[in-house]
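ingest -> validate -> predict -> emit
validate: passed (alphabet ok, no gaps, 660 aa)
predict: started
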Amino acid sequence: MDNNKINNNSDIETDLNFDVKEELHKLPDKPGVYIMHDDNDTILYVGKAVNLHNRVRSYFKKNIGRGPQIDKMVKLIARFEYIVTDSEMEALVLENNLIKEHRPKYNTLLKDDKTYPYIKVTLGEEFPRVQLVRQMKKDKARYFGPFTNGGVKETIDLINKLYMLRTCNRRLPQDCGKERPCLNYHIKQCCAPCQGYISKEEYALKIDKAIDFLNGKHQPVIKDLKEKMQKASDEMDFEEAIRYRDLIESIKKVSETQKMSDNVGEDKDIIALAIDGFETVVQVFFLRNGKLIGREHFYMTQVEEPVANKILTSFVQQFYSGTPFIPREIMLQEPLEDMELLEKWLSSKKGARVYLRVPLKGSKEKLVELAAKNAALVLSQDRERIKREEGRTIGAVKEIEELLGIGPLTRMEAFDISNTSGFANVGSMVVYEKGKPKRSDYRKFKMKTVAGPDDYACMHEVLTRRFRHGLDERIQISNSKKESDTGQDFDENSEDFQYGSFTKFPDLLLMDGGRGQVNIALQVLDELGIDIPVCGMVKDDNHRTRGLYFNNVELPIDTHSEGFKLITRIQDEAHRFAITYHRSLRGKNQVHSVLDEIPGVGPSRRKALMKHFKSIEEMINADVDQLAQVPTITNKVAEDIYNFFRQKEKQNPDTQDENQ
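emit:
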């Protein structure tokens, strides 16, 4: 076997960044997962294989028509690794997990990550409840859904009113009689099992009726309510009759969301797609108990030439690895790759047989065709919106790249400082990736070393802490991987290992100011040995960006361009984030800390000052006579307070208000 591997190496690409022939020689003829890395150790692609040697080798063969995007990926590969599994099924599961975790650039990816509500009937309890949940668990409960078209809360409220089911969290029957019945009992929306007013058997009958209702059996309920409404009306109990009427209307409203039905009352998903160039939309219809309960569309990104069955295969793998409910039957527009393997995988996840089918005629084929038409409609309607969004984001970033003459600018970070007369100094860091805010990477800083309104010193501290933290994280990651290479466990989830957004450095630093702010940033980067372009957002008299300061030159920018609008959004976001944090800190606690610095002001006088003046600003602007009017404040102490604030102003003449 090894001789064959050596002899077949003549058709292998050799103009790569590593000894590909030697690495291919090590690959086993076993199932598993392969992972492609670039020279920054970023994962480019994750794939599964029945035979790792044959599959990975195919990427590095010369002139095999892989397509321009895959050719581009192969040239970026600096190394690859593999994980051997016992079966192709294990490889499929591992591939799904790795794709979901790392979201590699060159995999076909499901862009949407949605969770759908379910209705849960807690049959494991003696007195069950009907609840809204977003995860299915392997318990004794009964689940209905997922629901995609809203109205789930209304349905649950309706069921609880119809059958007077409990909604409390009391442990029954253990807590029976320990507390008084709640308000729901008094307004006839609960039968009070907590008081023993209904037996377990009678309550179980109500739950059975609720389950029938959730299964779509609405007509018997409507008939019963109409009879009760008529009886109440005959007895002149119009208030009760109106209650029954409202319940009937609510049931009809719920019923209207289930217009389409199949001949057989089973759970099915119908999946079809529409492709236009490299844009793909996948449409899913959800049929539960033979009724259409909702539909949803998903965008797929792919780098290879779009092929319907490949995209559907990737969708099925990624979608059903993340959803807790798998229907008995999945109807598809096209046959999938590895269809038999996927059936086995889905069946093992569900714990019951799952069928993947491609209907060719009849009502099922029409449902698939309808899903395809809906996907095409979504793609057509969203095309202009997507183009506009790309213009506001990716297009705007490209304009900035062209203006500055640098790129690509995948990640940009902006910083701002906020304070009030030098008190509660804070800094903000906002992150934009591909022209969109990445709020999970936003960070805020409370000054540790700077007192008073010195924006330059504050910015120096913020940037130093941000990048030193990132360097420390990188060292920690490197050391952890070295330990892993020597046989020690490398666990990114351990308490000793801390991985954060600071590790990823920006392609451009945006400072909320001109030459001064830029020079501070360049000084910090030079001190830490980091090379990152720095650009200042130069403002006019109205505090609006008029240009960009870059490489000691102020560059004018078209105020009507998307690039300018993006810069403005980033500037406003950095300012907003800093102001929000500053306001959250500013208050009595911060006033305490300022007054503690004044000689002669103890706890009682501090309390009196805070009670007399509405804000710290009012206290700062007060004269000696106004300060002396405060109970317990003598003329001498009033002079000390007045002089304290004036001395602060002399030390920091460039005091900035928070709104500047």
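The longest helix spans residues 362-404.
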